[in-house]
Amino acid sequence: MKKVILMVAAVLMSAAAAEAQTFRMDEKSYLDAIARSDADIAHPKRSLRGQTWMDRAEAMFKAAAGGYELLQVFPGQERGDLAMRIGSKIDSRMEEVNGNMMEVLMLPYADIYLQNDVVQFWVDKANVYEGAEDKAVEAYRKAAELDPKLIEKAQKGISSVGDLYGIQGNANNFLGNKLAAAENYWRSFQIKRSEPLNVVDSISVFNAGYIFLTDDNNEKAIEILSTALDAGVWEGGKTPYFLSHAYMRTEQLDKMKEVLTKGLEMFPDDKGLIENMVNYYILTKGDFGEIKGLLEKSLADAPDNISLWAGLAQVHMQEGDSEKSMEFFTRFQEKFPEEVQANFYLGDAWYERGSKIEDDARNDKTMSAAAVKEADEKAKEAYRQAWKYLDKAYQSQPDEKAVLQRYTFVTARLIEDPGMEELYEKLEGEYKAAMGIE
User: Fold this and answer.
1) What is the DSSP string of 186-208?
2) Buried b (16+ CB within 10 A) or exposed e, 156-183
3) Which burial class, exposed, middle or buried, applies to 231 when counting CB atoms under 10 A from its CB (0-12, 13-18, 19+)?
4) CA-based angle 374:376:379, to the nearest 5?
5) Cα–Cα distance between 218 and 216 in angstroms, integer?
6) Long-range CB contact pairs, 272-279, < 8 A, 24+
7) Which of 296, 419, 403 is nearest to 341 (CA)?
8) Closest CA to 92 of 113, 106, 78, 80
9) E strand or H helix that includes residue 111
10) Geometric angle at alpha carbon 296, from 294 and 300, rounded to 5°
11) Radius of gyration, CA atoms only, the chain
12) Domain ranges of the chain
């Protein structure tokens, strides 16, 4: 397996060489050790000894990590120290990596990437023995099974193999090889989760699931993130949040609600979980009274939590009771006068009120000209109220598309007011750029 090493703590680093040398990778010694091990495990008596399998595990591990172990190259290492290990007369090239120019030292068996004369990571070009990592894990397990005295040593070995995958995952992620990184992280978790080690590599499993989710591989994301949740990896509510997204994308809405309910039990004021639970009720056209009761109960316990206020604001919008919504949005804005969401919801409610006044007047053919004029003025007053709050939201977060859209629209409705025409021209340009409109 091709190995790439990123700037993380070295888990396999040997003692530094005391004098300069030109390193020559002795693949034959690795293969000879494996050949001897093949003979040992085929022997009817030696194959029953735990130490036989431990020797095999270590031979396989050296084949998997030998280049790293013998090179003694590690992330963060300075060029001078590196030269003591591999020599100083090494051909190099410049390469752009993830937007950064790096010098690449080109060895027959590895490319070492440096930035500002410091090692960042390296790519092992030698593939000594295919599948050595997994064969090492298999042998460590067998050694522990045959000889309980070797369990602790086997646990450390398995952990080191898992670390190899995790390190490779970090490097692939850095290099932009996202799916390869996800596979590395997932394998790291699986190895460490197995017996006789059985520990939870929470960072690796979460990273794997998240990367697959961002790649729209929702089934794989569900497999990994649900495994993470079963293992107690909550990541502050992020695991159930992202898992609920995967369920939503695959239209498994019952499971979406189930995981959100579990998440909110652990993190009752988490913004993402609240928003996705509201989305669940929108998608299923469910009883908003249920989610409203849940949020109101949580708000009573945490009255200053903006996420709960915003979640209830979304529920009020969906229920369509404009008077109760306006009352709630006003309280939300008064409590958090500088909060973008509070200003946006109240501004949006005033905008909708102005639009309704206009629509009612336009559709009522019995209204007199005077009544229509009066309605238009009431609509403009509503739009002016909307503009006041949407302007505050825009000043705080001008790049938020929903805010920019409503702010642009309400400014257009007030085009005849002083200064609005010039502002509208500016906002229209920003809006088109944000939306990709030519």
Assistant:
1) HHHHHHHHSTTT----HHHHHHH
2) ebbbbbbbbbbbbbbbbbbbebeebbbb
3) middle
4) 110
5) 5
6) 272/237, 272/238, 272/241, 273/237, 273/240, 273/241, 273/244, 274/307, 274/308, 274/310, 274/311, 275/310, 275/311, 275/314, 276/241, 276/244, 276/245, 276/248, 277/311, 278/311, 278/314, 278/315, 278/318, 279/248
7) 403
8) 106
9) strand 110-115
10) 120
11) 31
12) 1-148, 320-438
The span from the CA of 257 to the CA of 266, in Å, is 14
- For the domain bounded by 320-438, which CATH number is listed? 1.25.40
Q: How much is the pTM?
A: 0.73
Q: What is the pLDDT along the chain (438 residues), one digit of tens a residue?
A: 545 544 333 333 333 333 334 456 678 888 999 999 999 999 999 999 999 999 999 999 988 886 555 567 778 899 998 888 788 788 999 999 888 899 999 987 788 899 999 998 877 777 789 999 999 999 999 999 999 999 999 999 999 999 989 888 888 888 889 999 999 999 999 999 999 999 999 999 999 999 999 999 999 999 999 999 999 999 999 999 999 999 999 999 999 999 999 999 999 878 889 889 888 988 888 778 888 887 888 888 888 888 888 888 888 878 777 888 888 889 999 999 999 989 999 999 999 999 999 999 989 889 998 998 999 999 999 999 999 999 999 999 999 999 999 999 999 999 999 999 999 999 999 999 998 887
How many residues would you count in the chain?
438
Q: Which two tokens stand for residue 418?
A: 């002083």
The Cα 410–Cα 355 span in angstroms is 10
Asked whether 132 and 63 are in contact (CB, 8 A), the reply is yes
CA-nearest of 110, 94, 133 to 23 is 110
Q: Which string of DSSP letters, residue by residue, matches 156-186?
A: HHHHHHHHHHHHHHHHHHHHT-HHHHHHHHH
Whole-angstrom distance, CA of residue 115 vs CA of residue 102? 5
Residues 340 and 396: their CA atoms lie apart, in Å, by 6
Helix 218-230 to helix 202-214 angle (10° resolution) is 160
User: Is the CB of residue 274 less than 8 Å from the CB of residue 295?
Assistant: yes
